[in-house]
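Marked as duplicate of an earlier ticket. Keeping the data here for the record.
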Amino acid sequence: MAWMGKGGARRRERVEALERPEYGWIWKPLLTLLVIYLVVTLALGVWWSRTPPPHSVEQVPMERRGDAGGEPAARGAVTVATLASIVETLYAKPGGYLRNDRLPPGLWLDNMPSWERGVLDQAKDLARALPSMHPDEVERLEEAVRGLAGDGLDWYRPATETHLVAAVAALDSELAALGGMQAEGFVPGAGLRRWLADVGVRLDDLSLRLASGAGGHQLLRELAIDSEALPEGTPWYRVDNVFFEARGTGWALVQMLEGVQRDQADVLESAGVTARWERLRAELAMTQRRLWSPVVMSGSGFGPFANHTLVMALHVSRARDLVEEIATALAESDALEASGDGVIQAPASEPEVVEVTRDASPERQGEPQAGGQDVTPEDVNQEEASSQEEASSQEEAGQEEPAPQASE
């Protein structure tokens, strides 16, 4: 009977194993898959966080116009092509548009979404100014404005990428309409002050938020920033977000400024702001220098740690001041043209046309009259002839008078 007891014990063990199975072997492949997933997402996050290089403003219009790239274009083509390339970069770069991601690794990233916010804000500002620059194509340009509207966080249909694609399509259509010398281009200087005003507001807000993340407000005296006007201090875990938003703003503005300068070079030259325009581009280019630290630090003074936010605030505040100076100079130039002071006068060497009165009687030829006017020989001859006629008429009248009779 012993063999029967052993058989029953084995059956009970098999039943218990089925009822309470041991799954200790499953956690090993699951852990391996999790580790692989984390490594892949980490690598993708590093790759997607790399800032794309700026576009060549000289090549962009020719590339976007396709076969017509070698033909001349009207004023404004470079500006429209530059804006279209900047917007296209938001969804065509590695990883696509990340601000509306709901899954890793885009969900974990914050530097690149902040960079995208800075680029998108500048694209909105320039797009809103385009209808003023080209009033003949308001409907097409308004479509681009609507495509760039919103906060850029839509992830469900229609997602933000859909709106961006529609905006780029509208800008490419506008670029095609500007092809050829017969096309009606942008109005010279129109919309520049409005765009610069929006840019100045963006830069001022960025400089305040960057400065509020500094270690102490006493460090802000060189920035000409009122410490009482600063917003609440940026939390330490948000400092890098504001920093990369400023980098995105500078990345977009450097290209936009170059594109606008190529279209409006004569307007900037007449207003005398070309040198300051170049300084503005150089100041914003300083915001694109390579960040050698793996993290954005906000040190204090001359301590052992750098203060990346304070350096960025310095460049942004300088750019803001230059934008205000350029906008003021453009306004003064427009006011001079409106008042007529800019009309070219005749050279001082050219003689003025003067009317000579008939009763002028200079004593001798070539002497100036009382009004300082020169008398020509023709006028002198006419006056001599008239005087001779008067003398002859007087003589005739004297001969016809009877002789006086002698008194008795």
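See parent ticket for discussion. Residues 308-339 form the longest helix (32 residues).
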